[in-house]
């Protein structure tokens, strides 16, 4: 339910300013009439459908082909599940843009906020988990081989999911109980004006930090592998250096490191611009920044969850062979 609490003048101005910057015509909104579909909204809906289909297919492939199962594949399954759950954000944002009055019901508004805040951070943190896994494998290879297992990977993946929920669910619940203004006047959103500290901490920990950590992890691993290649070549002699370096470079683009590399590139290209603007804009205004940011940035942000399963298949030779057998191609 919405509480008509004593809204301050400053808070009301922030709400109204956010609504004025929304892409949906306010007259249509007041009359409960849906706005026409825009190319951005169509793109969001298409990405949402592709997210569900492609990531679900990848999970099914891992489940029914035992030869693909490994501790590292558990993280890829977790990423696909996170992307499927996150697909609801695309549909909710499309509804928010076209027919926002559908979200005037408190239950539907709570569902939209849960999907938008509590589920949308899952893919970033699974990417973070994959980065930590790669650091462990490269920095402590003996420990990694002795202790890393499928059971441990499942526990770590579940912990990442719980971590995001613990940081986000309390604030969404508090918003619904105490801080949500009337839905028919201001729309459905998290009242971050009343919870600025939580807003800043959650945005940094759940969204910004994982992407930055993944990027620096990739740089660290590239430097580490390059130095290892040079040391190995020096031990074998200068005459074999070029051959050794070529073999190391070839290994870089096969297996788990190749998957991690392409996932990192996709995350940086698709996520970093949107999240940087989100933080800068959000810290300036302390209102829900997503209502002010351009919709095309959100569309690019959403594209990463579609690219994840495609990049995983393209960079993993066993997966490529498996997909070829499924579609009936010659291996």
Would you mind describing this structure in some detail?
This protein has 331 residues and is mainly alpha-helical. It has one domain: Rhodopsin 7-helix transmembrane proteins (Rhopdopsin 7-helix transmembrane proteins, Up-down Bundle), CATH 1.20.1070. Helix content is 78%, strand content 0%. It is globular. It starts with 8 loop residues before the first helix and ends with a helix.
CATH second-level architecture: Up-down Bundle
Question: Which percent band covers the strand fraction?
Answer: under 5%
Are there runs of 5+ residues with pLDDT below 50, and where? 19-28, 243-253, 286-291
The CATH class, by name, is Mainly Alpha
Distance between the termini: 58 Å
Write out key terms for the chains shown:
Rhopdopsin 7-helix transmembrane proteins; 331 residues; 0% strand; 14 helices; globular; single chain; mainly alpha
Give the structure's gist in a few sentences.
By secondary structure, this protein is an all-alpha fold. The protein has helices at about 10-20, 25-30, 40-65, 70-100, 105-120, 120-140, 140-145, 150-180, 185, 195-235, 240-250, 255-285, 295-315, 315-325.
Structural topology:
Layout: H1 9-20, H2 26-30, H3 39-64, H4 71-98, H5 106-119, H6 122-139, H7 141-147, H8 150-179, H9 183-186, H10 196-236, H11 241-252, H12 256-285, H13 295-315, H14 317-327
Helix pairs in contact: 3-4, 3-13, 4-5, 4-6, 4-8, 4-13, 5-8, 6-7, 6-8, 6-10, 6-12, 10-11, 10-12, 12-13, 13-14
